[in-house]
Design brief:
Chain C: Its main location: membrane. Chain C: GO terms for molecular function: ATP binding. The complex is a heterotrimer of chains A (357), B (274) and C (259). In chain A, strands 1, 2, 3, 4, 5, 6, 7, 8, 9 and 10 form a ten-stranded mixed β-sheet that branches. Chain A is α/β, with parallel strands linked by helices. In chain A, strand 1, helix 2 and strand 2 form a beta-alpha-beta unit. Chain B contains 13 helices and no strands. Chain C has 259 residues and is mostly helical. Chain C has twelve helices and no strands. In chain C, helix 1 packs across helix 12 and helix 7 packs antiparallel against helix 8. Chain C is globular and about 70 Å long. Classes of the chains: A alpha/beta (357), B mainly alpha (274), C mainly alpha (259). Chains in contact: A-B, A-C, B-C. At the B-C interface, helix 1, helix 3, helix 4, helix 5 and helix 7 of B face helix 1, helix 3, helix 4, helix 5 and helix 6 of C.
């Protein structure tokens, strides 16, 4: 009798011990910061979610090996990143972030950025002009450039101008970036140009989109779900950054990049340092690594980002898929970040009143 | 220590936690909707919110989809629940289990299934083409019907479960008795079953309606930026355009809609069944 | 019995509507093809394997799992005493307290996430991880209180009184008499809370941060740029996991009575 009771008690204690250690382990999993056990420093970066596998292979892993530190990566789109950084302004988690050039300027105007000491970047002098001081005051450096243009199904339509987006054969098959995404202002700029205007209020462009909004399948916020839309047959043409082209070509559909007579819009992505971050030296080192010829070439060979570093040389079959070389970069229509920021509120108002409904 | 003091002591941690980590932050957010730009108290934010035609449309769409989903759930819910309570207790339990299943499955996975089904090259379009119901694939994704279908699948189980438990309490001989007295099917339903299951209907109605107007994933994935509902509009206003003023108003609207739906429907249930 | 046949057909149609999509996603997830299609091209588990091979997804799964267990335990720890007090001890203001502790149920997740981020996490300087945990606990307390209160209601008060009369302290009476009897209710509430937390999206959307992302959020982000069956395979695996949990729970204690 006594014996049985003892066993029951022991079993109860055993179960309890297992449960407690299980919970303790889960608490460890949950509260454990990556890299704590390696003893090195941690660098927190906030970037776009696309092609993280390539970044890990070409940039993160080699950097971690070099510095003996751990990279913590947060992914999301430019606007979400901006609002999260603003929310945590007084207690920043992130050390280094990437933005579109105008969102970087927005971050600067909200006091979220620190200047970059470019004299400490060994790769700075290798950069193209557009990447050296994109928002002024050395508050950012460009790491990639991309044409924003039209991808389309060559078996369904022909595109030779931005005006062809409104062709009847694209009714219900057209996908455009929404105004609040990085591609939105670039789309409006090209539509304005196609209509022969150059008015920064983009009234003509907004009117065109409004008049044709019924043909648009959806206005996307993250460019990446384009792949889904083309694959499901929802989209026959879309306006997007060229970095999406390689991904789309892997669908084995007759998809091509259009060469409209007006040219393409130019977009830049930049690296910035977050104000108040404590790991400044490490962040600068990482930034320099990102701009190095070796990393820039590797990312280009994986068809992820077109180089901002002039010394990155690419074979022709790769170069043709990217935004590469001085001539191509010259031909693109860049839009000044300040113009976007100064007019965006008015564009948004017009967009909400006439297009989003 | 008497029971009441002990009671207070046991209640304090949970109440305090919900206060600090939920109610107070929510109250501050709600209070923000009554703040004018100059800091004084006023309805300026509401006036500005409703002056925007996009916002009017989103509010109406949210109410419309909420109402339609609720009505459809009531219709399908009675059909399913009446069939389920007709079963033997064992198979009844089994079917209730089947109906419960969808509630337990990740909404992301669930909605993804609809993307696969409703795309232009998806199963629904392929079947429609094969049976000659349509000449060309129809566009479902990013339309109101897609959001409606997704929400209905999400919330119908809650209605069925409420109605099953309500119908289980209906006296077994109520329906046969009414039929013997010559009542037709419709009369039996409206005069016998409906009054006896009003409570369950109200409970299910509240769950489905508030579920529909407060769901996020379904409208985000199946409606996108073109078919905004209040939740997706709120997310966009906060995280894309950093517009907290609008967000506070949407918060107030969503919370008051949920509470109003609960009050109205429970009043309806009580008032009539007495 | 024409009416009967009609009734069964209708029930079948409703079930098809509710469950059909999972069959599709399951089939698409085991496809051997390169792209997401239905009907699937051949059968293979390689996409399921490819999902498991992604370190970020494994990490997110571990985080989601740990978060669900920890927040459920936290909610039960706070919720069971509260439920007991509400049902048995008749504290002053019981109705108000009941409304307070169940209030997170009626507020949309997006609103909860926003309110907590701006007026709880940031002003108090709470780190990303504790903030995520606290928000999930707040969300789950209503489930703990309601389900446990319901099973307390079904338990007769007098056996507890008898134990106390026989000399047990209230604490002994609770652990020896009440606890074993409400065990099923507690387990039911554990499962409900676990699944609610594990599948939670809108709140986590605001409160996740660098290095800590939950599985549904990671999945939502990946859907955007995935065209192969891997996300379908992941969805199918998650669905099967839920089905297994529900099936076990149903077997053991008739979970649906508590939903």
């Amino acid at each position: 009798m006594q014996h049985a009771r003892l066993i029951a008690t022991l079993r109860r204690i055993g179960i309890l011990a297992i449960a407690v250690s299980g919970v303790a382990y889960l608490a460890y999993v949950f509260f454990h910061e990556p890299g704590d056990d390696q003893g090195g420093d941690r660098l927190v970066i906030s970037v776009y979610g696309v092609s993280q596998d390539s970044f890990r292979k070409n940039l993160y892993a080699p950097f971690e090996a070099e510095c003996g530190c751990t990279l913590v990566v947060e992914t999301g789109n430019s606007a979400e990143r901006l609002s999260k950084l603003a929310a945590r302004k007084n207690n920043p988690e992130v050390d280094l972030a990437v933005f579109s050039d105008f969102d970087a300027l927005a971050a600067l105007r909200r006091g979220l950025l620190d200047p970059i000491d470019v004299s400490r970047l060994s790769n700075y002098n290798k950069l193209y002009e557009f990447a050296r001081d994109p928002i002024g005051g050395h508050m950012a450096v460009g790491y990639t450039v991309y044409a924003t243009g039209i991808v389309y199904r060559t078996d369904k339509v022909a595109i030779s101008s931005w005006r062809d987006l409104w062709s009847p054969s694209l009714k219900d098959r057209l996908v455009l970036p929404t105004l609040t995404s990085s591609g939105g202002p670039l789309l409006l700029q090209m539509l304005e140009r196609a209509a022969g205007g150059s008015d920064p209020t983009f009234a003509g462009a907004l009117a065109q989109v409004a008049a044709n909004k019924r043909s648009v399948v959806t206005f996307f916020e993250r460019s990446a779900n384009l792949v889904q839309l083309f694959q499901q047959g929802e989209a026959w043409a879309a306006v997007t950054g060229r970095y999406n082209l390689p991904l789309l070509l892997r669908l084995n559909m007759p998809i091509a990049w259009a060469s409209p007579s007006e040219g393409d819009a130019g977009g830049r992505n930049v690296l910035v340092l977050i104000k108040g971050s404590r790991r400044r030296a490490l962040a600068l080192r990482f930034l320099d690594k990102w701009l190095s010829t070796e990393v820039q070439t590797a990312m280009a060979l994986d068809l992820v980002d077109s180089p901002a570093n002039r010394e990155a040389t690419l074979p022709p079959n790769v170069a043709s898929l990217l935004t590469y070389g001085p001539e191509m970069i010259e031909r693109m229509n860049f839009i000044a970040p300040a113009v976007v920021l100064d007019h965006r509120a008015a564009w948004t108002k017009a967009w909400n009143e006439t297009i989003a409904r | 220590m008497n029971a009441r003091t002990r009671g207070l002591l046991l209640l304090t941690p949970a109440t305090l936690f919900v206060f600090v980590a939920f109610l107070v932050p929510l109250a501050i957010l709600l209070a923000g909707s009554f703040q004018r730009d100059d800091g004084a108290i006023g309805l300026q934010r509401y006036v500005e919110f409703f002056a925007d035609p996009l916002h009017q449309e989103v509010v109406l769409r949210t109410l419309r989809i909420g109402a339609l989903v609720t009505l459809a759930a009531i219709a399908l819910g009675y059909v399913a629940a009446l069939a389920i309570v007709d079963l033997s207790p064992t198979s009844r339990a089994r079917l209730v289990g089947l109906v419960t299943l969808p509630i337990m499955i990740s909404p992301v996975a669930r909605t993804y299934a609809w993307i696969v089904l409703l795309g232009r090259t998806g199963l629904v379009n392929n079947l429609a083409l094969q049976f000659g119901l349509t000449d060309a694939p129809l566009r479902f994704l990013y339309t109101e019907p897609a959001v409606f279908v997704g929400l209905l699948q999400l919330l119908l189980p809650l209605m069925i479960l409420s109605l099953v438990s309500a119908l289980e309490n209906v006296p077994r001989d109520a329906v046969p008795a009414a039929r013997m007295l010559g009542a037709n099917w419709w009369v039996v339903f409206t005069r016998v079953l409906l009054p006896l299951t009003r409570d369950g209907l109200a409970t299910g109605g509240v769950l489905v309606f508030t579920g529909a107007i407060t769901a996020y994933i379904t409208p985000a994935m199946l409606g996108g930026a073109k078919i905004l509902m209040l939740e997706t509009l709120l997310y966009q206003r906060v995280n894309v355009t950093d517009d907290i003023a609008t967000a506070t108003v949407i918060t107030a609207l969503l919370v008051s809609m949920s509470i109003l739906a609960k009050l109205v429907l429970s009043r309806l249930a009580k008032g009539r069944s007495k | 019995m024409n009416g009967r046949a009609l009734q069964w057909t209708a029930l079948g149609a409703v079930l098809l509507f509710l469950l059909g999509p999972f069959v599709i996603i399951l089939a698409a997830g085991v496809s051997d093809g390169e792209t997401l299609t239905f009907p699937p091209e051949g059968v293979s588990l390689r996409w399921a394997a490819s999902v498991v091979a992604i370190a970020e997804l494994r990490h997110a799964f571990a985080i989601s799992f740990a978060l669900a267990v920890l927040s459920t335990l936290g909610a039960l720890l706070l919720g069971i005493p509260a439920a007991y007090a509400l049902e048995r001890l008749d504290p002053p203001g019981a109705n108000i307290v009941r409304a307070v502790v169940t209030s997170p149920l009626v507020v949309p997740g997006i609103v909860v996430g926003l309110a907590l981020l701006r007026y709880f996490v940031i002003p108090l300087g709470i780190g990303v991880r504790p903030a995520l945990l606290a928000s999930h606990i707040a969300l789950l307390i209503p489930y703990a209180v309601r389900v446990v209160a319901a099973s307390l209601r079904n338990l007769r008060v007098d056996i507890e009184d008898a134990a106390i009369m026989l000399g047990a302290t209230p604490l002994q009476a609770f652990f020896q008499i009440v606890a074993p009897n409400i065990r099923n209710g507690v387990i039911a509430s554990f499962i409900l809370s676990f699944i609610t937390s594990f599948n939670q999206v809108p709140v986590s959307l605001f409160l996740s941060g660098p290095g800590i992302s939950t599985l549904p959020i990671e999945m939502l982000a990946r859907i955007d740029f995935t065209y192969d069956p891997s996300i379908a395979a992941l969805s199918a695996m998650l669905a099967l996991l839920s089905i297994a949990i529900v099936f076990l729970a149903e077997r053991l204690l008739g979970l649906s009575r508590y939903v």
